[in-house]
């Protein structure tokens, strides 16, 4: 199967004020297939968010390389990486980060404008809001939506410009188990229908069986790998 992302001997370390070095990632080698839902599992401080940031070029490794959609991040300029993030990547965060003075519809429209979407924006917004089950609520403001509904709007916003890869950092962290499961099931549906590759971090053991692949991270190292399908 074609790879969307590959990391090779990835390391990340920081030098502290007392000149000691802390290793956040240690020789991480993973492969993520196109069109899959991959879960990075680990406790807080395990290094999973740092790894996610490396894979979307928000952070740079101390050693090693990241290949993203066939491109080596190490050979790209900051401007080229920014273009990749704008057009090829969607982001979903635990904090949701919706613009509070905008309706759900306007939040998605704003994201499409930023990505330079050239199609019929109204048609696409209606399509993705229908896909996340919120077409009837898309004119509501963020504070009129539940936590689970806000996260679904965030997912609609992330997929609206048709990115090839969606990164989700603890997208279920602020939700109860039922709402969290619903969000991950939605991710699986989107991966299938939109052809997107989805990489998400979580520490919730209830979600492990839903990923096509699960990488477990502890103390900056891959300590487990499960392929569910």
Task: Pick out its properties.
229 residues; alpha/beta; Rossmann fold; six-stranded mixed beta sheet; four-stranded antiparallel beta sheet; 6 helices
Describe the structure.
By secondary structure, this protein is of the alpha/beta class. The protein has a single domain, classed as Rossmann fold. The protein contains six helices and ten strands; from the N terminus they run E-E-E-H-E-E-H-E-H-H-H-E-H-E-E-E. It has a six-stranded mixed beta sheet with strand order 6-7-8-3-9-10, sandwiched between helices. It has a four-stranded antiparallel beta sheet with strand order 2-1-4-5, with helices on one face. A hairpin with a 5-residue loop joins strand 1 and strand 2. The longest helix is centred in the C-terminal third of the chain and has 18 residues. The two termini are 13 Å apart. The relative contact order is 0.20. The model has no long low-confidence stretch (mean pLDDT 89).
Strand and helix layout:
Elements: E1 3-15, E2 21-33, E3 37-41, H1 48-55, E4 63-68, E5 71-72, H2 78-88, E6 89-93, H3 104-114, H4 121-131, H5 147-159, E7 165-169, H6 177-194, E8 197-202, E9 213-218, E10 221-227
Parallel strand pairs: 3-8, 3-9, 6-7, 7-8
Antiparallel strand pairs: 1-2, 1-4, 4-5, 9-10
Helix pairs in contact: 3-4, 3-5, 4-5, 5-6
Look at the structure and give the CATH class. Answer: Alpha Beta
Q: How confident overall, as mean pLDDT?
A: 89
Q: Which descriptor suits the 3D outline?
A: globular
Q: Would you tell me the structural class of the helices and strands?
A: alpha/beta
Report how far the terminal alpha carbons are from each other: 13 Å
In the CATH hierarchy, the third-tier topology is known as Rossmann fold
Task: Report the CATH architecture.
Answer: 3-Layer(aba) Sandwich
Strand count, sense and barrel status of the largest sheet are:
6 strands, mixed
């Amino acid at each position: 199967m074609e790879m969307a992302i590959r990391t090779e001997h990835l390391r990340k370390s920081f030098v502290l004020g007392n000149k000691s070095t802390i290793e956040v990632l240690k020789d991480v080698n993973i492969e993520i297939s196109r069109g899959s839902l991959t879960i990075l599992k680990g406790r807080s401080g395990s290094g999973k968010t740092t790894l996610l940031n490396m894979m979307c070029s928000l952070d740079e490794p101390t050693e090693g390389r990241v290949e993203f959609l066939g491109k080596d991040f190490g050979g790209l300029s900051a401007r080229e990486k920014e273009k990749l993030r704008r057009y090829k990547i969607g982001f979903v965060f635990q904090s949701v980060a919706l613009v509070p003075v905008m309706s759900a519809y306007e939040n998605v429209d704003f994201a499409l404008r930023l990505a330079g979407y050239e199609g019929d924006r109204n048609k696409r917004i209606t399509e993705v809001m229908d896909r996340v089950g919120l077409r009837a609520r898309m004119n509501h403001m963020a504070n009129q939506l539940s936590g689970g509904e806000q996260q679904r709007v965030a997912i609609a916003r992330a997929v609206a410009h048709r990115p090839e890869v969606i990164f989700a950092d603890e997208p279920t962290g602020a939700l109860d188990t039922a709402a969290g499961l619903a969000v991950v099931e939605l991710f699986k549906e989107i991966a299938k229908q939109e052809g997107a590759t989805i990489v998400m971090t979580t520490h919730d053991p209830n979600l492990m069986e839903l990923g096509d692949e699960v990488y477990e991270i502890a103390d900056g190292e891959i300590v487990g790998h499960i392929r569910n399908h």
